[in-house]
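Predict structure. Chain length: 319.
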Amino acid sequence: MSAPSLTPSKAANHRRNPPRAAGPAPSGGRFAKSLKRNLTAHGFLIGAVLCFAVFSWYPMVREFFLAFQKTDGGTTTWVGLDNLTTVVNDPAFWQAWRNTALFTVLALVLGFAVPFAAAVVINEFHHGQGYLRLLVYLPVMLPPVAAVLLFKYLYDPGYGLLNELFKVFGLPEQQWLQDPDISMFAVVVASTWMNMGGATLIYLAALQGIPGELYEAAELDGAGILRKIWHVTIPQTRLILSLMLLMQVIATMQVFVEPFLLTGGAGPEGSTTTVVYLIYQYAFNFNNYGAAAALGLLLLVLLAGFSAAYVKLSRAEDE
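Prediction complete.
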């Protein structure tokens, strides 16, 4: 078989522009083109990384070193575990941990269950869901100081709205923020109202992703609303419930704003002193940044250990 012949014009082009040997493009050229194409994205990424490094990672690393240092008269020295010993021997240390654990338990009972119940109720409405979502999210949009001042008015023993309602129903008036037995409960109620909006919307989005056929099948089996919630709603939202539980524990263990603004931090007989408020006292009242960093490091280790154990148990259940 003879080779195909070239026309005169094609032959001339072939002589002027001989075909190049096929081969991979230089790696340097590909990298330069990729860098030029993604330069804007890299710029935004570098900005975000720098913000995290300056405002998140550097304080964490600095806290780790501060926990083992002491500054006196402008001179910084390494003191080993002395800061930790100072913190543990403080009588307020164990009280702060007990109060923080109590706040966490009460916040899980109210702050974890109430948003889920509110989401279930809102999900049952076929009309006006947008207004209900706005209504439940309004407290989150309020500045924390404004929301706390509102509750200080509600809890006031002289003219507060809650005691006025108690009078109407013939119930005894309460010293909401002055009684050490109920002050922590009052703080939890305020915190739940202030922060439940975001969790409610997350639960509502998860509920709206459940197929309606599952509820129809449950109704055909004669299941009531409680059985549908227990056998359909909760299993279908188990993943988001687990994630929100973990986030709830981490957030409540770091509570500071509500007790600080409602009861001045310590509260009656130290009943609302939390771990984070004790860190604040060490740093800004006692000017002992080493002890504050040591206590913060203890809290970090505890929360990291809880998170790791929780994730491991969750994976074991899934398997």
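Summary: The beta strands are 69-72, 75-78.
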